[in-house]
Amino acid sequence: MITEILICSRLTRRFGKRLAVDGVSLTLAPGRITALLGPSGCGKSTLLRLIAGLEPLDDGEILYGETLIASPAEALPPERRRIGLVFQDHALFPHLSVRDNVAFGLAGRPRAERHEITARWLTRVGLGDRGRDWPHQLSGGQQQRVALARALAPAPRAVLLDEPFSSLDAHLRGEVRQDIAGALRDAGTAALVVTHDARDAMLMADDLILMDRGQVLQAGSPEACYARPASLDAARLLGDIEVIAGERRDGRVETPLGRFEARGSNGACRLMFRPEALRLDPQGVEAQVTAVAYGGAASEVRLKVGEAGATLIAAPGRLTVGETVRVRLDPAAVRLLD
Ligand code: ADP
Ligand code: MG
Hints:
CATH superfamily of the largest domain: P-loop containing nucleotide triphosphate hydrolases
Helix content: 10-25%
Order of helices and strands: EEEHEEHEHHHEHEHEEHHEEEEEEEEE
Bound molecules: adenosine-5'-diphosphate, magnesium ion
């Protein structure tokens, strides 16, 4: 239903001459998780603060369905936007029990209802038996789950999470990521999760937004952004990318890794592809192994192909330096640059 969609259009925020958020548009719909990925300093937190109402808009507008929530001229205060927030850390009130933390946003409701909603949310995040504890008695991951329960309990229009995993140890991240994604899907609330970790973003997102220097580089499904990056900058945000130069003539590009179809005018051009698009193949082009780096599940093998270099992802122990191999680049995975 259009009436339940949070529509952000051309959101803009300046600090002095610096454009921290530069015309960002996005929509948040119930039951969908949108992940916002970008490097540190690109404007992610500022964008969240604009949506939550903690920062005024210099341009653009926010609508909930057809109702105006914010524009440079008029803005609902944060407490009337009904938008939940979860921050990276220091999220809970230390002097309130876990239960009272979750009940915090329910002030003004009848006591029985407050209890019922709080118990339901604590159970949903797997902490039904920890209501009487103090925040410091919980692990970092448990505290983040309480913070999420607190944000979701008042049934917000949307919940915004600012780097919710970045203060957690690596071994906890995966589990907390799944718990939080599960609770969000369960709740059916529109969610915007900010992260600077490509893996977190892709694993959680229904919709992915790639951001850099205040602007959206690309928006789409994780699969589309990964496999069909809109630019080299967008491609790099999601993982390693290889670039190879070639010569285009009559719709085809000649490269050391083979000939690929690419529309456009004749002349020099560049192609990009993910390293896993290059595979060992007896029918492929010849290449020399120049370096092998062990990486656990897979090794990164550096190849020399004619005058060009390329990286091959290979099973560990399979290839050695100096060896000659044959490789093939999947034409469907090759994208034209420039
Ligand atoms: P991110 O969350 O992606 O790391 P931020 O939104 O925190 O990025 O910051 C974006 C840019 O805006 C940064 O260059 C930051 O220094 C600047 N910035 C953020 N908040 C303020 C502020 N209150 N005053 C001045 N500059 C700010
Ligand atoms: Mg930030």
